[in-house]
Design brief:
- This protein is an all-alpha fold.
- It folds into two domains: 64 residues, lambda repressor-like DNA-binding domains (434 Repressor (Amino-terminal Domain), Orthogonal Bundle); 33 residues.
- It is globular.
- The relative contact order is 0.12.
Length: 111
């Protein structure tokens, strides 16, 4: 039997923005209000149909409490051990599993 390796594509900027937005429980409209743009602009970012200006990236990093490096390239050099393992696990899962992992983490954080 042949071993099948998972075909995991690198996460895009749009996917990182969407993941961070969902983790903050923000709708596209709510994020748009924080940035001062339209909901459709956020939708275009999340689907990688348009680029972002540096000032928007800086605002997003501040809203999401992350670094420009993570937003732009997915750089996680500041993460260590279990944090990095959790992030890699999350990224390797399908969208439905990612939502379930986020819900579990939120439930655990409340307890």
């Amino acid at each position: 039997m042949m071993s099948r390796k998972a075909n995991i594509q690198p996460e895009t900027l749009g996917q990182r923005i969407r993941g961070l937005r969902l983790a903050k429980n923000l709708s596209q409209g709510e994020l748009a209000e924080h940035i001062g743009l339209s909901r459709s602009a956020i939708a275009q970012w999340e689907t990688d149909r348009t680029g972002l200006h540096r000032e928007h990236l800086e605002r997003l990093a501040k809203i999401f409490d992350t670094t420009l490096g993570f937003l732009v390239s997915g750089e996680t050099s500041s993460l260590k051990g279990d944090e990095l393992a959790l992030l890699r696990l999350y990224r390797s899962r399908a969208a439905e599993d990612q939502r379930a992992l986020l819900e579990l983490a939120k439930r655990l954080a409340r307890n």
